[in-house]
Write the structure tokens for this entry.
Amino acid sequence: MAKHVRKVLVCKALGAAVPTGATRDAQITNAVEGTLYFFDSKKNFIASTAAKTAFTAGQPIYVGTKVNADGEFYLSDKITKDKVESITKEAYRAKANSVATLTIGNPVIGKRYVLRIAYNDVLEMPIQFTQSFDLYAKTASAADLADAFAAAINSKTTSAGRNARVVATSAAGVLTLTAKDITIDDKVDTLYEFHAIDIQDVTLTCEGVAAYTAKTVAAADAGVGYWKVVRDIEKRALGYRGSMFFNDCRWNQLTGTQMVEKGKTYDVVDILYNNDYRSADNQFIKSTPLQTTIFIDSTAAALADLADVFGAADDDKSSKPTA
């Protein structure tokens, strides 16, 4: 979660060169929508090589992207090398659904077996939200009992799929539970944020019997640069640009422009830094923490060039800018 004033830029490509044009207005007109550009301290376009030189020399630079044909740009706050606290770059990493496996022991015919799945993604009651399934063993085969539980779990699916939180499969007595994707948020313009179903634990009990012999639980992983997560981060940050009331019913909502594209994957460069300002009583120079997060289409293969401008380290860990 962001703890600073945050500017988020979502881009299709990196503009290494200055847009064509003899004047600044012409350059703005010729700039490509969705492309990330660099600017000097006076907010004039500069090439990426010039931006790197200026940043290395301690001069402030800006980054920004054109968001519409009217020439509107979303710009970062000014970024100065000696004010940077950390820079993190991360390449796209695919998300992973939560998965649990349970190896069922040899069943005792006629015994009651109770399977409980605990979830960790319901904010109001983490770990307390569970689903339970109980069956009586009809055979002494672990494979049969696993098949029966899989069928019972999958039968929870309604026409809208509201009750089905996992998909169950079975093979040779091993029950596998894979958390489902939630599709209610499957568009850019939505009131719902991405929500990953997360299995906390799964257990099988039977009085007087060792009901299972082994289990594994893997938590959900949102990955890096998944478009729904990028969408939600971008939407939250639009508040810093004056866009509010996304969940409001007022007719005159000013929601800003979201640049994220459905289905795209993104690399990310995240910069934490400070900027000075003069206090209201005109007595002191103070500092305020800021954050600029740049998401750029992973297919543009621009992560290394973008990170190089800011001197980011050659890994995905936070670092100070290099000389």
Residues 84 and 273 are 4 Å apart (CA to CA). The longest helix spans residues 142-154.
